[in-house]
């Protein structure tokens, strides 16, 4: 019984922390507010997570794991073009509304300690960058020889974040089509 209660409380902490971290970011989220929302004391929260950064890492880890599952599934799909594969990737990322990628990137650079930053980057690299690199590798013959699949995956993320800021009025399908066309064919394509 005690293990079930412990797990239930931890799950409730993670749910409340996910909601807060993903909506208002790391800096503006307090462990006191998370504890209040869960109905426990702040010292009790620290029984489950030793500090705010550990809780944030647990939340980010859970979100990255879900995204990794969805992105990795694309590798198993019967897709015949890089255009189609990247459209699937883009729609997964755009439709996954829990994560504000720009805020997450800001937090990673400005709001957390260096060890936490390294863990966040490693998680992002393993859970998000690797599957997209593998997708690029499946279409290596269609890619520019001057860039590695890894470099293309990094460029993809950077460009997608920019497109999301410039076209907030487009729905996700329209944005995905526009972004993939621009990413793969450039402004002259």
TrEMBL record:
<dbReference type="GO" id="GO:0000976">
    <property type="term" value="F:transcription cis-regulatory region binding"/>
</dbReference>
<feature type="DNA-binding region" description="H-T-H motif">
    <location>
        <begin position="30"/>
        <end position="49"/>
    </location>
</feature>
<dbReference type="Pfam" id="PF00440">
    <property type="entry name" value="TetR_N"/>
</dbReference>
<dbReference type="InterPro" id="IPR050109">
    <property type="entry name" value="HTH-type_TetR-like_transc_reg"/>
</dbReference>
<dbReference type="GO" id="GO:0003700">
    <property type="term" value="F:DNA-binding transcription factor activity"/>
</dbReference>
<dbReference type="InterPro" id="IPR009057">
    <property type="entry name" value="Homeodomain-like_sf"/>
</dbReference>
<dbReference type="InterPro" id="IPR001647">
    <property type="entry name" value="HTH_TetR"/>
</dbReference>
<protein>
    <submittedName>
        <fullName>Transcriptional regulator, TetR family</fullName>
    </submittedName>
</protein>
<keyword id="KW-0238">DNA-binding</keyword>
<dbReference type="InterPro" id="IPR023772">
    <property type="entry name" value="DNA-bd_HTH_TetR-type_CS"/>
</dbReference>
<feature type="domain" description="HTH tetR-type">
    <location>
        <begin position="7"/>
        <end position="67"/>
    </location>
</feature>
């Amino acid at each position: 019984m005690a293990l079930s209660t412990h797990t239930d409380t931890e799950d409730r902490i993670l749910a409340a922390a996910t909601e807060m971290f993903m909506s208002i970011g790391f800096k503006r989220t307090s462990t006191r507010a998370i504890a209040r929302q869960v109905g426990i004391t702040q010292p009790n929260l620290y029984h489950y997570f030793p500090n705010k950064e550990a809780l944030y890492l647990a939340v980010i880890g859970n979100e990255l794991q879900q995204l990794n599952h969805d992105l990795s599934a694309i590798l198993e799909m019967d897709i015949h073009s890089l255009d189609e594969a990247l459209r699937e990737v883009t729609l997964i990322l755009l439709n996954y509304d829990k994560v504000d990628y720009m805020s997450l990137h800001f937090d990673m650079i400005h709001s957390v300690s260096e060890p936490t930053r390294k863990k966040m980057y490693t998680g992002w690299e393993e859970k998000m960058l690797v599957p997209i690199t593998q997708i690029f590798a499946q279409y290596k013959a269609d890619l520019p020889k001057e860039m590695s699949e890894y470099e293309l995956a990094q460029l993809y993320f950077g460009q997608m974040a920019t497109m999301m800021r410039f076209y907030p009025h487009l729905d996700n399908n329209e944005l995905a089509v526009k972004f993939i066309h621009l990413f793969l064919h450039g402004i002259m394509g």
